[in-house]
Structures are given as structure tokens and as C-alpha cells.
DI3L2 exonuclease (Bucco capensis), 165 residues
Amino acid sequence: KQEDGPKVNDPRLVPDEFLQRTAKVVYILEKKHSRAATGFIKLLADRNSELFKRCAMFSPVDHRVPRVYVSLADCPPDFVTTPENYSNTLFICHIVDWKEDSNFATGQLAKSLGQAGEIEPETEGILTEYGVDFSDFPPEALECLPQSLPWVISPGELAKRRDLR
């Protein structure tokens, strides 16, 4: 700060450590996220609203993903009458749209995974979110593997390798 000097209005003359960089997103060129999320469904809080009769709220486990309105038609048939039965059930939801003027995205429930806290549903949810193909290997891939089991490395091949066990 210069007490007796002229005021500097040109940002190019201000040192970088005093600048706060800002930006505005104008276009998303490529969507990297799979737009799939793992989470829970629950009824909306305002029971008198028109939205309550059509939608449920999907709350993702990952806090970086927005909450999503899903159609009640995508939910299990008895969800509206007994929502407490699904309070601990993990679902996969695909985000379909997210309007600029809305706080919540809209999406579709794709699948019920199972109970939260169990290994298989949690693992499947994580793999689906990150777009990892976890389906079984096709027969063509399995044919190139050794068919005589138990398979062992030959002594000649073992001599050429470094043992990292």
C-alpha cells in the first residue's frame, strides 16, 4: 500500500498474490461423470404439494452429486404406503436433466442394489458410479487362459523372472 503515491486501478500492475481469480462456466464441452449415483429414496416433506403426488427424493451417498427428483412410477409399488421399508435400501439413479433454475436434478431409478452396509451392493454401487464394467468375462476371453488346473509357471520361465513374493 502506497500512502503518498497514486492509486493503481490497472489489475495487470497488481501482484498475483493479491488477485482473486474468478470465472463463469459458459458451456460444458464433455461430460466426464457417468451421471449415475448410489443413494436412498424418501418421500418429499411437503405432503400437500403437487410434486409430492408425482415424485420422490433421491439422496446420493456422495455429497458432491445433487439430490434428484425421481418419478414415483420408478419407485417400488409399495414405496408410497410403506417408505420406512426402503429407508436402508440402496438404489442406482441416473441423472437425466438438471435445469438451471432448479436446485434439484431430475432422474430415473435404474436398479435396487440391496441393503446399505453389505459388501456386494456397496461395491456394485461404486463400480456403477465410476462406469466400471463388472460383468462376467465372455467365453472368448476365458478360452485363452490355461485350461489345465492347477496352472504353474514352468521352471525355465521362473528362472527368467524376478520373484516379488
